[in-house]
Amino acid sequence: MKKAVPIQQLVNWYYGNYCTRKCYLDEQRQEDHIPKLQELAKKMRGVEMTHNKFLTLIRSDKTICNLSDEEWQKRTFSWRNNKCLICKKFGIR
Q1: 43, exposed or middle or buried, with CB in 10 Å at 0-12, 13-18, 19+?
Q2: Residues 2 and 51: beta-carbon distance below 8 Å
């Protein structure tokens, strides 16, 4: 059985692993998600759930992230599109 974790940790995990990777071309969309996710964490303070249940909550809500099911499946971060100077220094492209 998967371990339940605090909601703030899930919000941080979601932003780092989904917002930045699914919407890497649209920085404004990423910035719009931050306050919405923090508000969700504030409302649900003290709640613990699994990562899978949190993803289900976010995908079914559509007020925080309105990606279609097709976009959820297709959009991923590509290192080839990365313009990070640190990544280029280490040869990650």
Answers
A1: exposed
A2: yes
Query: Comparing C-alpha atoms, which of 36, 37, 39, 43 is closest to residue 10?
Result: 37
Of residues 89 and 27, more confidently modeled: 27
Q: Which position has the token pair 């998967």?
A: 2
- Tens of pLDDT, residue by residue over 2-60, are 888 999 999 988 888 777 777 766 777 778 888 888 998 999 999 999 999 998 888 88
| Distance, CA of 79 to chain centre | 17
Q: Going by C-beta distance under 8 Å and a sequence separation of 6 or more, which residues neighbour residue 22?
A: 65, 67, 71, 72, 75, 76, 77
Residue 9 is inside which H or E element, if any?
A: helix 7-14
Place of tokens 């703030």: 8
Which single residue is written with the structure tokens 């100077």?
85
pLDDT value, residue 48: 93
